[in-house]
């Protein structure tokens, strides 16, 4: 008998049988099911299976948390059920049949930015380090920075800008590449399109906004301004999708024996033309409007209210998948405002969820089986990955989730009320402080302490009240 034989049989039964499974795949810790009828899945019984550490539905997929042995469990499940395995990407595509239009848009955004996150995180850390050695007066009684007294650190500061510029100024190249990869079109064309948006021969759009006169391509009967869209998100997204859709359309219509020549030519040139006449200017205006509205909301008299609502509701946004929208907003704020005041609140939400789990570890310190789930969940949460904590522990008991939301909201008010700005999207959780601009690190550290103490304390209070309530029920 195989290791998970009984658990696999139970999961197959409780999920509605083979006929209810449209697709199944797995990721690092979770089984991902696309179900023909999600209502047939008995969630309570599924979560009662010994190997199952929780479940949730996201992006049209019913996801069952197994843990580090998910690959073994998955292989046994597919062998037992006879369900044909599919890739994670195919499962995502199948799962979209259960999503609304808005959810599909958000799902697409998440898939675009996911491959870019490692570079953006590195870029944020580099900018933070440059600020520390270049802007903070650490030496000579607080009058000089490291780069002012050391040629070595001056050289490091100058050199690191090469990487920071490559990541953020040329971000449109990564976006257009990611879209072409996601859509299954020619990736090098996506890269070329991105380069045409940031080419050095183009005048930076920020310079144009500042009053500089852009050169033009003169076609005799008309002229097109030579404006670049460095660090811009929305122009790149619009252009990337137009290129991908145009290429896919041409593939269906152009004979195969000439497609290698005709399709790239007829897809790339019109898209680049549209990018510099319509999509770029339109995307710039949309991006500027979004960033201005968000920034105004966070810095207005009622910024504390905006912060409280966002900090309190960010964790529920993760459950629905709507949190993927924040990546685009963060990047737009960075390009427009020189930093983002949204990302610090996300890092604080991560910390708050981890702190609620820490309280559950304390409350269940004698439960060895519970600790096998909660300890790894708390660690991953403090490092910015909240799903194991939320779905494996906090949502299971509910009150830790609420305690974390309250703590996150209070910490967010402190962060926004103090004007905390991050250089960029960075590592979440406790390491998030490395992304914060140096002058705000002190107050952000206080907000982090709040995000630890309040959820921890409230979780214990809620647990005791719940136990008291149960005792009163029994006595009556």
SSE blueprint and pairings:
Elements: H1 5-14, E1 21-26, E2 30-35, H2 43-46, E3 54-58, E4 61-65, H3 70-81, H4 88-95, H5 101-113, H6 117-135, H7 146-149, H8 151-168, H9 171-183, H10 187-198, E5 203-204, H11 205-209, E6 216-218, E7 223-225, E8 227-228, H12 234-253, H13 256-299, H14 303-320, H15 325-337, H16 343-363, H17 368-382, H18 387-397, H19 399-417, H20 441-475
Parallel strand pairs: 5-8
Antiparallel strand pairs: 1-2, 2-4, 3-4, 6-7
How does this model look, in words?
The chain is of the alpha+beta class and 476 residues long. It has three domains: 5-98, Gyrase A, domain 2 (2-Layer Sandwich); 115-289, no CATH class; 300-475. The chain contains 20 helices and eight strands. A hairpin with a 3-residue loop joins strand 1 and strand 2 (30-35). Helix 17 (368-382) crosses helix 18. The longest helix is centred in the middle third of the chain and has 44 residues, at 256-299.
């Amino acid at each position: 008998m195989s290791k998970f034989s009984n658990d696999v049989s139970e999961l197959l039964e409780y999920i509605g049988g083979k006929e209810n499974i449209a697709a199944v795949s797995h990721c690092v810790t979770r089984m991902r099911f696309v179900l023909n009828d999600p209502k047939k899945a008995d969630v309570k019984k599924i979560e009662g299976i010994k190997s199952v550490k929780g479940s949730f539905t996201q992006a049209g997929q019913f996801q069952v948390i197994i843990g580090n042995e998910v690959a073994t469990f998955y292989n046994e499940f597919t062998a037992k059920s006879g369900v044909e395995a599919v890739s994670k990407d195919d499962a995502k595509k199948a799962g979209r049949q259960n999503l609304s239009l808005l959810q599909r848009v958000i799902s697409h955004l998440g898939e675009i930015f996911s491959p870019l996150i490692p570079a953006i995180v590195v870029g944020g850390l580099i900018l933070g380090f440059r600020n520390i050695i270049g802007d903070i007066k650490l030496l000579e009684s607080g009058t000089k920075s490291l780069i002012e007294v050391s040629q070595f650190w001056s050289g490091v500061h100058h050199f690191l800008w090469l990487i920071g510029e490559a990541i953020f100024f040329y971000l449109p190249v990564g976006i257009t590449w990611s879209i072409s990869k996601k859509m299954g079109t020619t990736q090098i064309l996506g890269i070329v399109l991105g380069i045409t948006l940031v080419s050095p021969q183009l005048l930076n759009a920020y310079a144009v906004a500042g009053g500089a006169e852009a050169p033009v391509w003169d076609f005799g009967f008309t002229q097109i301004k030579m404006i670049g869209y460095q660090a811009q998100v929305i122009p790149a997204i619009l252009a990337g999708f137009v290129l991908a859709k145009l290429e896919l359309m041409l593939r269906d219509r152009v004979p195969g024996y000439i497609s290698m020549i005709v399709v790239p030519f007829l897809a790339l040139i019109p898209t680049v033309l549209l990018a510099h006449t319509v999509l770029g200017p339109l995307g710039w205006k949309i991006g500027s409007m979004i960033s201005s509205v968000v920034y105004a909301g966070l810095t207005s008299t009622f910024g504390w209210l905006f912060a409280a609502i966002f900090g309190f509701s960010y964790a529920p946004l993760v459950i629905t998948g709507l949190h993927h929208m924040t990546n685009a907003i963060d990047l737009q704020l960075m390009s427009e405002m020189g930093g983002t005041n949204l990302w610090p609140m996300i890092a604080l939400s991560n910390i708050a969820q981890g702190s609620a789990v820490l309280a559950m570890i304390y409350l269940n310190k004698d439960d060895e089986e519970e600790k096998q789930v909660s300890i790894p969940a708390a660690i991953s949460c403090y490092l910015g990955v909240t799903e194991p904590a939320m779905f494996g522990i906090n949502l299971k008991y509910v009150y830790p989730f609420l305690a974390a939301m309250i703590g996150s909201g209070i910490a967010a008010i402190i962060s926004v009320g103090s004007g905390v700005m991050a250089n960029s999207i960075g590592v979440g959780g406790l390491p998030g402080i490395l992304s914060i601009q140096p002058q705000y690190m002190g107050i952000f550290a206080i907000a982090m302490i709040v995000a630890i103490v309040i959820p921890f304390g409230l979780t214990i209070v809620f647990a005791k009240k719940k136990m008291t309530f149960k005792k009163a029920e029994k006595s009556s």
